[in-house]
Amino acid sequence: MPQNQTMSPDEIDRLARKRAGAKLGWYVHAMVYVVVNLFIFSISQYGFGHRPWSIMPLLGWGLGLALHGISVWLLGAGGNVRERMVQTERERLQREQDRRNGS
Fold first, then answer.
1. What pLDDT is recorded for position 89?
2. pTM above 0.85, yes or no
């Protein structure tokens, strides 16, 4: 949201709930990741003869968790990176429109 545009209290509440929900979703994802991977690690070390296969799901899911975190914390609605990019595009489009209109 640009700095010069004000939001109503309802819009602020809706955006705050959306951001909080996305962050809470990431925290739940991270907790499930830790619990499940601890279980998988214990199975691979103690249940099936010390086979080091548990690193594969750990790395694969870890990549998914990292991408989820990037989408929530950096690129999500209201994220600083995303908002700066949107503002830059708005300014570029406005300049193009002004040029076409002869301003």
1. 82
2. no
